[in-house]
Design a protein that fits this description.
It is a single chain. The protein has helices at residues 9-38, 63-83, 97-108, and strands at residues 91-92, 95-96, 114-115, 118-119. It is mainly α. It has two domains: 8-38; 63-119. The strands form two sheets. The protein has a two-stranded antiparallel sheet with strand order 1-2. A two-stranded antiparallel ribbon has the order 3-4. α2 packs antiparallel against α3. The longest helix is centred in the first third of the chain and has 30 residues, at 9-38.
Length: 123
């Protein structure tokens, strides 16, 4: 099938544009299929909706105990910041790692061993 040299230029340009769009669409479809075949299924199974998770219930300390907690947590916080002296301290949720660990300590009365996958030094 030949192309007539007397065909209107707008028809030729339109045909080229349509063919280009079809080629690009086929290329995108092929890439999406390749991506879908490479994706690995997640190994985590969804949680059982019938099971109620155990909520973290912070203890309600007596005011005297809370003062002791605060003092203990402050000591651990100072050790933690001393550990990172001269180094860049990791950030967790917009605050320093030592601040995050201190916040947990003040709620529970114990310096945590880790927070969000990062070890809490100073404990």
């Amino acid at each position: 099938m030949g192309l007539c040299i007397f065909a209107a230029p707008e028809i030729v340009v339109g045909t080229v544009l349509v063919l280009g769009v079809v080629v690009v669409a086929l290329a995108i479809e092929a890439e999406l299929d390749a991506y879908a075949s490479k994706r690995k299924p997640t190994s985590k199974s969804p949680p059982d909706p019938k099971q109620n998770p155990q909520p973290l219930v912070p203890t309600d300390p007596h005011p005297a105990d809370y003062a002791e907690w605060r003092e203990r947590c402050t000591d651990h916080y100072i050790k933690c910041t001393g550990y990172f002296a001269g180094m860049k301290e990791p950030r967790v949720y917009g605050e320093s790692l030592c601040q995050s660990c201190s916040r947990v300590c003040r709620r529970t009365g114990r310096w945590p061993t880790e927070f969000s996958g990062h070890p809490c030094p100073g404990g």
